[in-house]
Design goal:
single chain, about 180 residues, alpha/beta, Rossmann fold, 2 domains, six-stranded parallel sheet, 4 helices
Length: about 180
Amino acid sequence: MISEKTKAPIVSVVGASGAGKTTLLEKLIPELTRRGFKVGTIKHDVHGFEIDRPGKDSWRHKHAGSVVTIISSPSQIGMVMDVDHDHNLFELATFLTGVDIILTEGYKREKNSKLEVFRPEVREEPLCEEDENLVGLVSDTPVDLGVPRFSTNNIEGLADYLVSYLKITPSLSPTP
């Protein structure tokens, strides 16, 4: 699926807790970046989170009642905003402008392209066996779900596949 606002394709990395989703993203993001792609990411956390430290000025602003707090420096911007519902991917994608691809961790129930990370020692069966939005499987176990399967160490092959499947081109020059 493509975000209408950013025009960037969205691919969700899904799998059971402990399957290696974050580890895969830590390898895939630099590979795509090396190829000149601007990558945006979204992490879904159903448990809630706190990104600012208690006592810091921005934390104090937020806890004083501000509904949106932006933290700005010469090299980063962060935003904390109150919301009234768990935003779907397409609502969140509107915050990511100027990227070539959006990778998410989680959102297994959304109707967008998915890569599943599967390890049978973590979960007996893949989560997305019947999901028509599954476009690839990352597993060292030979499992056939009717989509291409990549070993956990074949990051270059996975990146090649995503670039071809999504028909994306980098906005930056590749780095050696």
